[in-house]
Amino acid sequence: MDLSMLKEYLPFLIPLVILQFALSITALIHVLRHPHYRFGNKVMWVLVVMFIHFVGPILYFALGKGED
Amino acid sequence: MRGYLVFLKKEIFEYTKTYKLLIMLVVFAIFGITNPLIAKLLPEILESLATDGVIITLPDPTAYDAWEQFFKNATQMGLIVTVIIFSGVLSSELSKGTLINLLTKGLSRTAVILSKYTCMVLVWTASIALCFGLTYGYTVYLFPKDETSNLLFSVFCLWLFGLFLLAVLIFSATLTKSNYGCLLITFVAVVACMIMDIIPAMHRYNPISLATDNMGLIMNSIEVSSLYSAILISCLLSLIFVSLSVTIFRRKQL
After folding, report:
1. What residue spans define the domains of chain A?
2. Beta carbons of B235 and B227 less than 8 angstroms apart
3. How far apart are the C-alpha atoms of B121 and B237, rounded to whole Å?
4. What is the pLDDT of residues B66-101, one digit of tens each?
5. What is the pLDDT of residue A2?
6. pLDDT in tens, A32-55
7. Domain boundaries, position B184
8. Which residues of A touch B30 (CB under 8 A)?
9. Shortest CB distance from B23 goes to which of A15, A16, A61?
């Protein structure tokens, strides 16, 4: 992939990157503020939401988030 | 009526508070952006996979490929995510017991079911509209020359199928106590529709043809009028399922 191709796909990449960051950061804040999970611990969830793109935060909100 | 509006407001607040609205919107936004992108990049990805000696030739991608991705993702992953997110629509509040207080204070059970259904429909509409808008914008940007026909009607059919599915979902939620039971009954209903689809004579009247005929509509190989009866049947069935769930919920021992 050269630079011109990257430029062509920039209109796609920017929104995807923004979405990914918004998701990770909301999930990260939630993980740190609510230390009760249905399973797993804080370190595991921090790693999951930070490093598994898109799927990690969604998994956290759908499965890992404990009841308030 | 007042109970309905108040409960609707509470439902919307709950979806934002439990991040369900966020998940739905983000999932559909990701689909919306990646649909045209994957259509555009698929030939190049396959080319890079080809080792020497194997030549893969694919026709240049068109807007049809982008819409094919859209209808594939929205009808499979999209609907699966929607059903899973909404599977706890009744069971979570029943098991926590938070609904009992409201019901004893005079909130009618009809209002509960109707506002829950309305809220699910609103979230589904927003998500599919977002996905459609993004796919449309990027498809026009990537494939400006390609023309598609019946696009809006095709998406309308998909949206209507979502409404039907949500009606089945709320009906099964009133029948069972857990969200797994709710998921199971919805799944069985969809499989039943698929099995009925094997009989060619049933295809015209089967709600599932609203979610399977979309590409045919866009390519103009399926006539718009052939779906009218399926649309009518879906609307009727949705109405029946919602009113049945109201009746069952009114008689249910909580």
Report:
1. 3-64
2. no
3. 15
4. 999 999 999 999 999 999 899 888 888 888 888 888
5. 66
6. 998 888 888 999 999 999 998 888
7. 2-251
8. 16, 19, 54
9. A61
Question: What gap in Å lies between CA B219 and CA B167, rounded to an integer?
Answer: 30
Nearest-CA distance A65 → chain B (Å) = 9
Collect the ranges in chain B with pLDDT lower than 50. none
**How many Cα atoms within 13 Å fall on the side-chain side of residue B71?**
25
Q: Return the structure tokens found at B247.
A: 């009746």
Nearest to B3 by CA among B117, B107, B103: B107
CA–CA gap between residue B86 and residue A11 (Å, rounded): 32
A15 reaches B (C-beta below 8 A): yes
In chain B, how many domains are there?
1
| pLDDT, position B248 | 95
Chain A closest CA to B2's CA: distance in Å?
Answer: 28
Whether A3 and chain B come into contact, CB under 8 Å, resolves to no
Q: What angle do CA B78, B79, B81 make, to 5 degrees?
A: 65
Closest CB to B141: pick one of A11, A22, A30.
A11
- Alpha helices, DSSP H only, in B143-252? 151-175, 179-196, 209-212, 214-218, 228-251
* Measured distance CA(B170)–CA(B172) in Å, rounded: 5
Q: Which ipTM score applies to this complex?
A: 0.83
